[in-house]
Amino acid sequence: MTDGPSASMRGLARRLLAVEAASESAAGSHVHEGVRVCEKLKISVARFAGSDSFASLLRRALALARTENATLQTVKVKADGSLNGCEALAVDGPEGAIALIAHLLGLLETFVGEPSTRRLVRQAWPDASLDS
Amino acid sequence: MSAPGKDHREGRVPIRQLPTGVPGLDEILGGGLPEYSFNIIAGAPGSGKTTLAHQLMFANATPERPALYFTVLGEPAIKMLRYQQQFTFFDQSKLDGAIRSINLSQLVLEKDLGAVLDAIIKEVEASNAKIVVVDSFRTVVRKALSSASEMELQGFVQRLALHLTSWQATTFLIGEYVESELRDNPVFTVADGLFWLFQSVERNSIVRKLQVMKLRGQESVPGLHTFRITEQGLQTFPRTFGLTAHKSEHVKGRRRLSAGVPELDSLMGGGIPEGDSLLIAGPSGAGKTVLGIQFIAEGLGRGEPGIVAMFEELPDEYMQRAASFGFDLRKHTEDGSLKLIYLRPLDLSVDETVHEIVNAVKEINCKRLVIDSLVGFEMALAPDFRADFRESLYRMIGALTRLGVTIISTVEVEENFISMGLSNFTISFLADDIVRLRYASINGQLRKILMVVKMRRSQHSIDMCAYDVTSKGLVVGEPMRGYRALTSGIPGPWSLESGQNEPELSRPLESHAEKARKRRGRSAK
After folding, report:
1. How far does the CA of residue B93 sit from the closest CA of chain A (Å)?
2. Alpha-carbon distance B435 to B462, whole Å?
């Protein structure tokens, strides 16, 4: 399916970024919230599907997100599924990070369905209130 | 499992059985899966191993006693989740803690067997797992043998089995094995249960079969059992037809059932013994199907529910044909006393057919069954099953008559004018009773004759009678006298002397009712 992520997955992406932005200011972290969302999703997805699977999905999500946000051109996915060149995520506001996370969630939704995608998200943020 | 004696059995450890969630499989296993057993699910790619494991998990996992599904370099977990949720047994809510999927691929690639064992143990202990699946364990073994000795592998399997059993987990290792690997394989030696899934292709059809090759602690049903994978997942068709627990109270021949043709009842010594299997053999157009319709209609008129399993005609065509003889079968299908089962899927197996029929028999408390015809039945089977057709028929008829059902099967025989065969299948040994229909050339006409060839356990007429298929069904006439070589189909006068009268076959046959009416008229005079 080549359609973009659903509105519900875009909403979830925004919510996850907001949750991480709030915790960033509380903890004084300097890592971009988009990177931290990816890292948390990586743990959850890799546990059940393996880190290779997560890295593949993230690469595909990045390719899709680049078509709607050119600032992501310098972002790369490393072999272990972590992001490189994340400074670009901070350029031009949060739209680049939203696009990347939304496409990642959208891919998961495409492959395993919304209930399973939300389950993986809940495993990564067990204490967060993620209802839109 | 042999039981040495009642006293000896007392005090033995009870082995609880877990439901498999696979229709028919509990019966094959002798009641269910032995709890805490260490099992292998083996088979070729595409044989249904992963689906079977998922059905087992969904049938047993709870949040308190979850199922852990370890994936190792086999089908990617994301795709597995994508495909498995298409099955109806897949319950999304169970993924909230009752079923957990853990990927061990990286560990297997990078570490040794000890690390893999530690990871599994850690997860099992932390979760209090009830069911553990490793898919594919074959991959673990292959990796292990590339760097460790066979003894180390055996030690690993031993420790894995020991630990998982100690933690009260029932375990399934999934692997793509071939039968030649059965010997000297430490994995098979340690396993308590070995379930093998086969998939064979013959001509254009695929046949799936399951065998319980090994099961410690309880008696399973031996042999190969057909199974199908549908939207519901695996469904097995035990060779016992779901009747293991069925205690037959039926006594064969306790009463006689009318075939719906009074003269034929007389020839059979009073009708068909209840619970018998009657074979009607005859050439095309001889009236076999009509006789089956009369048998069913007669039963329905007496309040005896019936089933017709048809392989050559569609139910609507069958009912239309019955209506042309004055039998309204449609009203009985509507009130539930008659079931018309039309079975012609691709790759049909006898066991599936019987499963369908047995279910219908139980559902409507069926007393009369017509199988029309055995030739059509055989043609509907996948080629692989045709080789076992006779054996399967034997089991099927035995199972159904044990339920107290009286069966009429029709079989077409290729007519010739040299000899008189009973069927081209040599299946007459399956029948308690046999009625043969055949053509004979008499007085320049192709006439029909009927004879009762065999009635097990009872006397029957040895007369050969002419009959016609009329608008009311089969009408049997008087015994044919004065002919020789009737069974050849080209009879001649018994005496060759001139003036020998040709018997009275040129005039139309009288029905039983007409004859009775005439008798009553004569008595009145």
Report:
1. 9
2. 11
Cβ–Cβ of B77/A46 closer than 8 Å? no
Model ipTM value:
0.70
Give me the number of domains chain A comprises. 1
User: pLDDT digit of tens for each residue in chain B (525 aa)?
Assistant: 334 444 556 667 788 999 999 999 999 999 999 999 999 999 998 899 999 999 999 999 999 999 999 988 777 888 888 999 999 999 999 998 899 999 988 888 888 888 888 899 899 989 989 999 999 888 887 777 777 777 778 888 888 888 888 888 999 999 988 777 777 777 888 899 999 999 887 666 778 999 999 999 899 999 899 999 999 999 999 887 766 555 666 777 789 999 999 999 999 999 999 999 999 999 999 999 999 999 999 999 999 999 999 988 899 999 999 999 999 999 999 999 999 998 765 566 777 888 888 889 989 999 999 999 888 888 777 777 777 777 777 887 888 888 889 999 999 887 766 666 666 556 666 789 999 999 988 888 889 999 999 998 889 999 999 999 999 999 999 898 888 878 777 887 776 554 555 555 545 566 556 666 666 666 655
Rounded Cα–Cα distance for residues A24 and A33 (Å): 7
Domain assignment present for A98: yes
3-state secondary structure of B165: helix
User: Counting runs of H as helices and runs of E as strands, what totals does chain A give?
Assistant: 5, 2
In chain A, residues with a C-beta closer than 8 Å to the C-beta of B67 are none
Inter-chain CB proximity B76 and A53 less than 8 Å: yes
Instruction: Give the closest-approach CA distance of B79 to chain A in angstroms.
Output: 7
Q: Contact B368/B296 with Cβ under 8 angstroms? A: yes
Point out the residue among A46, A113, A119 whose CB comes nearest to the CB of B103: A46
Copy the structure tokens of residue B114. 């000890």
Q: Say how many C-beta atoms besides its own lie within 10 A of residue B27's C-beta.
A: 22
Distance from CA of A4 to the nearest CA of B (A): 19
Q: How far apart are CA B438 and CA B112, in angstroms?
A: 76
In-domain check, residue A130: no
pTM summary value: 0.73
Structure tokens at B429: 């040994």
Asked if residue A91 is part of any domain, the answer here is yes
Closest residue to B82, CB basis, from A57, A112, A119: A112
